[in-house]
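Lecture 7 notes: from sequence to structure.
We start with the chain below.
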Amino acid sequence: MEEIREIGVPEINVLVNLPEVAIPAAPPVTLQIGVPVIDMPAFDPLDFEPEGQAPRVIAPKPKPVEPPKVQPPKITLPQPEKPVIEAVEEEATLIEQVINALPSIPQTTTVAASSVIGVTAGLCTPFLLKLVRPLIKKAAQKLQKALGRQPVPKGVSARRALQRSLRG
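Predicted structure tokens for the same chain:
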């Protein structure tokens, strides 16, 4: 039997030997490259003495502004050659108004055909998915076998068996 060792905390050395930081006396770059490329003009601020007062600045008087005269452009409209005669509409009976409001036969057939196609597509989608999905799965499994890959296991027990076989 092995002996149980005692629990002990090792001592922590408080003093750590840190390297001394050496600060250079001169900057590391001491090259004289030359004159600056951009010649900036000097800025000479106004010299105000506390005893003296600054000269008064008088603002210039603005010139009176004259509004420009706006002249509308001259437009000449062509005169109609013949007087326009307004057509007088006769009031149609209720039956004529209903007949005029009904769509034509080509319009009716187009709308009916598109609605029939939409409804049948909406109703057939779940049925088509139930038919097509298994076919696609079988085709994918055959393709994976042809490529030399292992097919995905179908159940929990098959997946566990595959994982156990991979462990060695």
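Points to note: The chain is about 40% helix and 0% strand. Helices lie at 94-101, 105-147, 156-167.
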